[in-house]
Each structure stands twice: as structure tokens, then as C-alpha cells.
Amino acid sequence: MKYKFLLPFLIFSLPFLSQTHIANLSLDKKTFSNTADKKVTPEDLAQQQLDAYNLRDIEAFLEPYAEDVEVYTFPNTLNYKGKETMRKRYGKMFKDVTNLHCELENRIVKGNVVIDKERVQFNDKIIEALAIYHIENNKIKKVYFVRN
Asked: Which end of the chain has a smaller Cβ tally under 10 Å, C or N?
């Protein structure tokens, strides 16, 4: 965690870094691990996956998710289930999309639910979305995406 203070700077700088610079970034694994000695909040889990998404670190991104995570299009269309399917989808996106960045515009935390209003850049396209994270047993168990 000794470099945690750099995260805001790195996240702000990502849109300005080349792919080579991003590929050479590495973080201490402890930065993204959920340890038993620290109380992990639902907000921590949502932030952890967001930070890892922006760094394209697939292992750190998947860390806060349950093995049997379910991903939906709101209100109830199941898109896929399981961390391994998520690994394939996001791993490919992290590799293939040259300009990828998610900006958190607003966050609401209520109990075990986190709702993020996000602005996501995929190459030249910008998408605004809501992500609703349901936390169970210190892991993200369900995700609902609301897109326009």
C-alpha cells in the first residue's frame, strides 16, 4: 500500500499516457487485495474494481468479484455468470480497446449496494451508464448495468 497515494495521479494521467506507458505500470498486489485483517466496505470493492479497470489489470479487476458473479442489463436480463466468463470478456477488452477509461461521476452507497454513475470511453465513443453493485460476503455478487 506504500504507493496508494499515487492512484489519484495515475488515474487522472491515464488518458494522457500511451499504451506503452500503461503496459509498463505495475502496482503492488497488496494494493488490490481484500485481506481478512481489514474491514472491506462495499464502496472499497467498487472502487477497487474501478481503479483496476482503468489500469487494465485483469487480476486486480476480478479480485473483488464472487466466483459466481452475475452480470445483468437492468432490470433483469442476465448477460453472463461467472468470474471466468468475466475474465474472458474484460481481458479481451483491456487488450483490444486502445482508448479505454471509466470516469466516476457520482456514487451512492446504501448498505450492501453501490450505485455508480459512470462515463466510459471506448476508443472514440463515450457511453454514460449506471452500474449497480450488490455485495454479498465481501464480494461483488451481482452487477446491473443501466445504459441509454
From this structure: C
| 8 CB burial (10 A radius; 0-12, 13-18, 19+) | exposed
Q: What is the predicted pLDDT for the residue at 39?
A: 85
Task: Indicate whether 24 pLDDT > 50.
Answer: no
Share of the chain above pLDDT 90, in %: 72
Distance between CA 113 and CA 130 in Å, rounded? 13
Amino acid at 18: S
CA-closest candidate to residue 104, choices 59, 47, 23: 47
Any residues with CB less than 8 A from the CB of 53 and at least 6 apart, and which? Answer: 61, 90, 102
The per-residue pLDDT for range 91-141, each reduced to its tens digit, is: 999 999 999 999 999 999 999 999 999 999 999 999 999 999 999 999 999
Which residue is associated with the grid cell 451512492?
A: 108
The single-letter code of the amino acid at 93 is M
3-state secondary structure of 102: strand
Helix (H) or strand (E) holding 141: strand 139-147
